[in-house]
TrEMBL record:
It is found in: Cytoplasm. Belongs to the dethiobiotin synthetase family. This is ATP-dependent dethiobiotin synthetase BioD. SUPFAM superfamilies: P-loop containing nucleoside triphosphate hydrolases. The active site is at residue 31. Its cofactor is Mg(2+). The keyword Metal-binding applies. Mg(2+) binds at residues 15, 40, 93. It comes from Helicobacter anseris. The lineage of its organism: Bacteria, Pseudomonadati, Campylobacterota, Epsilonproteobacteria, Campylobacterales. Catalyzes a mechanistically unusual reaction, the ATP-dependent insertion of CO2 between the N7 and N8 nitrogen atoms of 7,8-diaminopelargonic acid (DAPA, also called 7,8-diammoniononanoate) to form a ureido ring. Pathway: Cofactor biosynthesis; biotin biosynthesis; biotin from 7,8-diaminononanoate: step 1/2. Keywords: ATP-binding, Biotin biosynthesis, Cytoplasm, Ligase, Magnesium, Metal-binding, Nucleotide-binding. InterPro entries: DTB_synth_BioD (IPR004472), P-loop_NTPase (IPR027417).
Amino acid sequence: MQVCIAGCHTNVGKTYASAMLCASLGYDYFKIIQAGIPKDCEIITSFAPHSKIYPEGYVLQTPASPHIGKKIEKANYNAKEITIPQSQNLIIETAGGLYSPIDEKYCMIDFISHHHLKTLLVGGYYLGSINHILLSIEALKNRNMQLMGLIMSGEQNKDFDNFISEYAKVKILHLPFFDKSNFETIKKDFKQALDIIF
């Protein structure tokens, strides 16, 4: 299965969620577009060393919205021409939120829709996140895109989870912050919880 990991906002934990999914499921990894260095694939390699890492669709050195980095670097690419690797089991990570631009014409959600990708949305616990998450879910539903579930990253707040779950009728997985010291413990619990989605 090819699964897209999309965010409700930037810096909500998409790469760590991708790393955990790759490690738990044995999936390969592909980043649509990398904006800034170091590369996100380094985190994947650190936690899921057995996963195959495909080259990014495009790499920009500028740590900014890709359409800005593209202009600064005079890069030549088209979002619709970025090809997805032919891997049977693949985690595809976006950059930023659903409406973060890939180029001058298209956003991440356009890429996901164009390729008919099943999607896991990643959200976090911060002021305003419920709004960002619900707007993202609504955007996916309005395009009849398949939302598999929501991964909430960070220290769990059940009030957040309960409201989102009841309001949007979405399955929620909780992914605590992790590093090398607690990775295996978190992975064991997360892998068991994946049964509600996979």
